[in-house]
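Hi there,

I know you've been waiting on this one. I reran it after we fixed the sequence typo, so this is the corrected version. Both the input and the resulting structure follow.
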Amino acid sequence: MADFVGALDQGTTSTRFMIFDHAGREVGKHQLEHEQVLPRAGWVEHNPLEIWERTQTVIGSALTAAGLSSSDLAAMGVTNQRETTIVWDRHTGRPWHNAIVWQDTRTDAIAAALDADGRGQVIRERAGLPPATYFSGGKLQWLLDNVDGLREAAERGDALFGTPDTWVIWNLTGGPHGGRHVTDVTNASRTMLMDLRTLDWDDELLSFFTVPRAMLPEIVPSGDAERYGQTAASGSTTPWGGPIRIAGDLGDQQAATVGQVCFAPGEAKNTYGTGNFMLLNTGTEPVRSKAGLLTTVAYQFAGERAAYALEGSIAVTGSAVQWLRDQLGIISGAADIERLAAQVPDNGGVYFVPAFSGLFAPYWRSDARGAIVGLSRFNTNAHLARATLEAICYQTKDVADAMYADSGVRLDTLKVDGGVTANALCMQIQADILGVQVSKPVVAETTALGAAYAAGLAIGFWRTTDELRANWQEDRRWSPQWSDEQRTTGYAAWRKAVTRTLDWAPVSG
């Protein structure tokens, strides 16, 4: 068997390909950003063709940079930004519209209507999700209702739907020439269209969104040696040479859960990326949330029962740092925020609630919009920088408290991963606000690692999850330094700031 496993990580702001050895160490990587298309306030789109072009480039470039060829990969897994919705022509591969990104809020009227007439409760019970702009079902309905000719094509079976995993796998395996139209249980569980217990599309849920079943991909396990196929030639050659077996697929946050080896009930991780996402493994039975969390599929390996999780999803964390860079211009790069925020000992009374896309867990308020409160002439850009880091951490505190309310599991250590964990000040603030230890692994990009693990387990590159646990190593740990009084006072002010964001955006008609 070949010595390495690859992982394609198609994220919200970039696409990367990473290569891992048997010990879970990174041996190669290439990453490219793609454009964020913002047609109007609250709308966020991506160009699917740009994502496909980036996908091809990063696979070939990562292999070349590592001095490897496609034959050196035993398999590859795929992980992706979840909920982002793409519809394309089965025969040509041309998208019917730009991808509608998970952050997009144009479907607020659809979500509100579901809750108004009682269908929302059926969705909560069957799909484990609240009706919200976040999820794919409403985005797909919007496309079917607003793109000329699409509904007719979908009913004929000529238009295909998928989240970005489905889009890239279909293209990788041949596209119009026999591409596999599949998704895994974790991505399907984010659509509002799948029954959590049957792990299949549900006809009543489909009827709520008027979605033709013919356009939906086949739902398969997250790790499977047979169902995903292998990469096929695009034209006469590919940028990576010969075929690569695809054996795994996970939504990005579930992939990070696997990469953080949270295989036992009660184990949790928090990923810091464009948004923040905390998942708690709850075992093989779904746990219904009463505190504003999501019930979701954590992973399923071929031949095994699915594992479920409670998830707290936060829309804007790392992207708030990008906002300081791109819209306000107070930092020149994301790494600069740590230096700037460290210039002041505290936030100077400033709280920043970055509700650019409404508030996700545990509030679920699409009418919320961002607010900076507590400003005085004393404050500087350093206070705003520090308030931005604190916003990342306070939103995590909101979710951790909800998770405890639902599960009774109180964290003693939080496993963290993702790009923001490179910011040591932010991680120290996180430990201070939560009052628990914060632990970062050696491989911080656990999303890609989890996709590699799923594929490698499926083909026997790794035999058991115990081998994966043996790979996990801690890189750094942060301990709380705040007093209980600081923690309580700061969180009370944060909750007060959150109230200032509500009732700003009317629900569109």
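Quick highlight: The chain has a mean pLDDT of 93.

Best,
R. S.
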